[in-house]
Design a protein that fits this description.
The longest helix has 39 residues, at 183-221. Strand 1, helix 5 and strand 2 form a beta-alpha-beta unit. Helices cover 57% and strands 16% of the residues. By secondary structure, the chain is of the alpha/beta class.
Length: 222
């Protein structure tokens, strides 16, 4: 919410990263994945623009690999990619040991120029010709990845990316209708994040209770 409302510089991407990592420290990867499934079903699934999904399906129908490249945790990206039928996802990798997050990252936050670096690495690994590839982005932090391909496209762009795309004669697609002020994107992002954190808190508060019941059940069985 902070990043969406105030932008990268004002919010401080490093602070956002630290806050996010502190939230998930000690949490089970399996638990967070389960929460991700709930958030997708409750918020995201019904708010995906049909035209965006149609664009993804059209690429798949042409035999293209379709990868989601996101600064979000790779578990989240992989979940969305799987639900949408995409090939896979690249995302920020949060370190975990024995199935629990440590609160540290493996590598850097996949953001800005690092998205482009990861994409180039992926292309080399899978034999993808980036000069004949497509990329879609909605904000200025996607410019590095958009410039790595032969066919960049600004999709539902925020104002700065829209201006940049016009200067460089990139195609622009807007699926938000006439009132394309980004309000829908803000609301979906805020609602998704709020629900995610709420579920984390609920799971955290009820975990000791669930543990006590399991211990009591084992005791009675014994």
């Amino acid at each position: 919410m902070k990043y969406t409302m105030f932008g990268e510089k004002a919010a401080g991407i490093d602070n956002i990263r630290s806050e996010a990592l502190s939230i998930i420290r000690g949490w089970s990867v399996a638990e967070m994945t389960a929460i991700g499934e709930e958030v997708f079903d409750e918020v995201l699934a019904l708010r995906i623009f049909p035209a965006t999904k149609g664009l993804l399906d059209a690429h798949l129908a042409r035999g293209h690999e379709v990868w989601l490249v996101t600064a979000a945790p790779v578990e989240v990206g992989s979940l969305i990619a799987r639900r949408l039928g995409a090939t896979g996802a690249l995302g920020t990798i949060a370190e975990h040991q024995h199935g629990y997050y440590t609160g540290a990252l493996i590598g850097d936050l996949l953001h800005g120029a690092r998205k482009a670096t990861a994409t180039i690495r992926l292309a080399k690994t899978r034999g993808i010709d980036l000069a004949n590839s497509f990329a879609y982005g909605d904000s200025t932090n996607d410019i590095p990845i958009l410039t790595t391909v032969g066919f960049p496209c600004a999709i539902n762009p925020e104002r700065r990316l829209r201006r940049y795309a016009k200067r460089h004669n990139w195609p622009i697609r807007d699926f938000r209708g006439k009132r394309s002020n980004g309000r829908r994107g803000l609301m979906v992002t805020t609602l998704s994040g709020t629900l995610w954190v709420f579920l984390v808190i609920v799971r955290g508060l009820t975990a000791p209770i669930r543990g006590a019941f399991r211990a009591l059940f084992r005791c009675r069985r014994g």
